[in-house]
Amino acid sequence: MTMILVTPLSALHETIEKYRPSHLVTLLSAQSMIDTPADILPQNHLRLSLSDITDVTAGLIRPGADHVEQLLAFGHGWDATAPIVVHCWAGVSRSMAAAFILLCARAENGAEYSIAKKIRARAAYANPNRRLVELADRALERKGQMISAVDAMGREKIVEQGMPVEFPLDMMIR
Predict the structure, then answer these.
(1) Domain ranges in the chain?
(2) What share of the chain is helix, strand, coil (3-state, %, to 5)?
(3) Which of 19, 80, 86, 152 is the most buried (most CB within 10 A)?
(4) Helix, strand, or coil here: 27?
């Protein structure tokens, strides 16, 4: 079964070992950026340098439209024959937003609420980065549905970091 896996950086290598993904998305600050793991082909590793912020903050990289465009193009190039792993520092905000975006991009318009609800059911701590979601909502022409769906998820459980979580494509986008 093919899936999107979200994990914190601390569990990345174990997750790669266990699931043998073909693709990897890293969302970290420039100072924390990692090299491509040996088990991943360099062309199958998208490294997005951005901070987990929504507003302009001195010294930090605010998520931009270019980050979302790169993510969507990378996701479009993933053939889903093997899992894709998405990670950030904690596996809570940037990576959850990226997984939500990738799932919405594969689903039909109107599936946003269902996807958000399923993410919440699998990860009570998910808190998708609102700026990334807003930019993806525009890029995918969802007319606010993605933002509304994330808002409808309700408050997240506060944790220091998440844990690896599976989002099977067949379950998430139907």
Answers:
(1) 3-172
(2) 45, 15, 40
(3) 86
(4) strand
> What pLDDT score was predicted for residue 70?
98
Query: 10 Å Cβ neighbour count for 4?
Result: 27
Longest CA pairwise span in the chain (Å): 43
User: Distance of CA 163 to CAs 29, 67, 84, 87, 140, Å?
Assistant: 20, 24, 16, 10, 28
CA dihedral 77, 31, 59, 11 (to 10 degrees): 70
Predicted pLDDT at 58: 87
d(CA 54, CA 127): 12
Q: Is CATH 3.90.190.10 correct for 3-172?
A: yes
Regions of the chain short of the pLDDT cut 70: 1
Q: Looking at residue 174, what is its pLDDT?
A: 75
Residue-level pLDDT at 100: 98
**Residue 151 is encoded by which pair of tokens?**
């808002």
